[in-house]
Amino acid sequence: MDRKIEKKFWSGKRILMISGGTLVALLLLYNLIFADHRSKLNVEKDKITISTVTKGTFDQYIAVTAVVQPLKTIRLDAIEGGYVSRKYLEGGSKVKEGDSILRLENQRMQMEFMNHETEMYRLINELQNTRLNLKQNRFTMERTLAELNYKIAQAKDLYDRNKLLVDEKIVARQEFNKNKMEYEGLVRQREIEIESQQYQEENARIQIQQLEGTIARTQRNLEMMKANLNNLVVRAPISGQLSSVDVEVGSSITTGQNIGQIDDLSGFKMRAEVDEHYISRVFAGLKATFEFAGKSYEMVVTKAFPEVTNGRFNVDLNFVKETPEGIRRGQSSPIRLELGKPSEAILLPVGGFFSDTGGNWVYVLDNSGKRAIKRNISLGQKNPQFFEVLEGLEPGDRVITSSYENFGDKEVLVF
After folding, report:
1. Do 118 and 220 lie in a common domain?
2. 3-state secondary structure 57-74
3. 256: alpha, beta or left? (left if phi > 0; alpha if psi -120 to 50)
4. For residue 203, what are the contacts with CB-CB under 8 A and spacing of at least 6?
5. Dihedral of the alpha carbons of 170, 176, 178, 181, in degrees to the nearest 10
6. Measured between alpha carbons, how far is 384 from 347 in angstroms, rounded to an integer?
7. Are 294 and 325 in contact, with CB atoms under 8 Å apart?
8. Which of 37, 49, 121, 353 could pair covalently with 402 via S-S, beta carbons 3.0-4.6 A apart?
């Protein structure tokens, strides 16, 4: 008789299946709780730049390109207009103060000068004639007075004698009265003549004063016109180099038109273009350093121009002591412009990462050196070499400072 065999519940196969399922469940649970779910990206370590955060002196400066310029440039503007009749010098020539550069012709000015000169000669002749007439009138007055005095003396003598004889009835009263009237008439005539001559002389003196004033004014006008005629010859106001002459023989020049410039070669300055971001931090008195031929030269900002063009403004700098030998006008060179005093800070080398993150975060390598993890940071000031780290990094941290353009938004980079 066959006997029924009962199957065991905990068979080897079942135990194996349950153990396997449990293991899979535990793995899933572990992965769910403890595994790293951050987005990752595999990168090649030799294609990135890794820099070490340090602590040291942070120099507040910027590197800008400056161009050598003459210490002083004089514009040549036409004081008077005309057409160019002769050109003595070309651009690039060395000139001395007073050297002739151009000659202009202006017939209108020449005619006006000749007319004023003729008028002045006419006034001088009139003045001389007035003075001559005054002297002649004085001679005439003296002669007339002499004749009157002689007649008055005769009339007075006759009047005095007849006055004594009329009382004795030797001379008739009618004759005496006639002598008296003649005498008094001559005296009155003399008084009138004196007054007339005084008036004529005073009037002549006034005319002379007026003529002298007119002549003086005319002479001053002539001197001014003569100076203007002399200005038709354009001369070098200083010694230096005639950098340009922008006119040719036969061309017409208007008053005030620029015709060139002269560079003063007694010294040089440098003009730099600075980003408008620094316009509030750049002012006269700031120091700078210029490297030339293996030697460092101190400079100082003398003027910061407030006008901003294409996001940049100009700054003039002068050499503090000696001017480098061998520099030439138009030569460009980088200079180091100080913006403040050095200070101790945590330093992060400058790199392409900033354009992708704005300095808000970086990838920092972990201790194994096999991964770089995204970390938020805060940066302060910048110079051409370093950023000033305000928070988020410590000395010794290793940071990817090359561009993050190909990393997307991944939180972890795996090497």
Report:
1. yes
2. EECCEEEEEEEEEEEEEE
3. left
4. none
5. 170
6. 12
7. no
8. 49
Sign of CA dihedral 342, 343, 347, 353: negative
Tell which wins on pLDDT, 120 or 348. 348
The helix (H) or strand (E) run that includes residue 12 is: helix 12-33
Please give the DSSP secondary-structure letter assigned to residue 255.
Answer: T
- Of 305, 292, 336, 120, whose CA–CA distance to 211 is shortest? 120
The pair phi, psi for residue 386, each rounded to 5°, is -135, 155
Do residue 140 and residue 216 come from a single domain? yes
Token pair 């009155």 in the structure block, residue: 188
Note the pTM of the prediction, 2 decimals: 0.52
Q: Could you tell me if 253 and 364 lie in one domain?
A: no
Which residues constitute the domain of residue 253? 77-106+232-257
DSSP H helical ranges for 72-172: 107-167
Please report which residue ranges of 264-409 form alpha helices under DSSP H. Answer: 353-357
Give the pLDDT confidence of 361-374 residue by residue, as tens digits. Answer: 999 999 888 899 99
pLDDT in tens, 57-73: 988 888 899 999 888 88
- Tell me: pLDDT of 221 over 70: yes
Does 13 fall in a domain? no
